[in-house]
User: Which sequence fits this backbone?
């Protein structure tokens, strides 16, 4: 990760109603969010997921990687 850039974005100063609207939009299914996540890893493979996201596994073509603790 020293050679790669990692961007973490967050939100500050938003009202709780903004979260409710966003959750409602996600729950409505109008946004194809499943297309954003291309690869999911279980928690015990978190290091592999971070390495993949850092570009160490370019053959998989993942653009968005998630770690699922309950998988």
Assistant:
């Amino acid at each position: 990760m020293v050679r790669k850039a990692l961007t973490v974005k967050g939100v500050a100063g938003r009202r709780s109603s903004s979260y409710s609207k966003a959750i409602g939009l996600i729950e409505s299914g109008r946004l194809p969010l499943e297309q954003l996540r291309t690869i999911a890893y279980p928690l015990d493979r978190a290091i592999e997921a971070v390495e993949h996201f850092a570009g160490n596994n370019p053959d998989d073509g993942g653009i968005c990687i998630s770690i699922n603790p309950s998988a």
